[in-house]
Design a protein that fits this description.
There is one protein chain. By secondary structure, this protein is an alpha/beta fold. It contains nine helices and five strands; from the N terminus they run E-H-E-H-H-E-H-E-H-H-H-E-H-H. The longest helix has 18 residues. It is globular and about 40 Å long. The two termini are about 20 Å apart.
Amino acid sequence: MIVWLNGTHGVGKTTTSALVQHLIPDSRVFDAEKVGETLMDITPGLPETDNFQHWPPWRQLVVETARRVLDYTGGTLVIPMTVLVEQYWREISTGLAQHGIPVRHFVLHADQDTLRRRIEGEHPVPSPFRLTYLKPYAEAARTWLHAEAVVVDTTHLTPAQAATEIVRQALGKPRGPRRTERQAAARAKPALASVDPRVGPGASTPSRPPPSG
């Protein structure tokens, strides 16, 4: 199974994912951002963009990497990754479903003022990258994202409390695709739902973004 932690940059996905991993037996954290970094290292570079998620190979390789790891290890993958473009989430979640991988999709949420305070308080110089995503996140939340996932409002929760709630729901009744016979026999993969980020098509080669949490 996959536990996907979605939400805007700076909401706490990276911190929470590590806590979730400690609470779910036989689980591992898969940082899908590393797939984007690998693509960014290709020379000459891929077509110019401001976000590696716009490259179709990123979405495809995230699915393929996740399924290969789960085939090899079994258990659960915890993926902390912002996906705000609905089309991109559909591609990823559909690809995982085609491989019979249950996905539990969670969105770590906080109101805009809380998010801004967290981002501005994290470093002496607030991250422009993270601040840029506040409005796209709000629009995605309003139009499709919150309807596609279990929303965990972190405004008044510690990361540990958020992780505990995610694990409680993730290990409950699955909302994603039914298990395949292979998965049922292995009994190593719990069941999940789905999630992920985006800004509009860009024009320049992306600089390495900060950690997605």
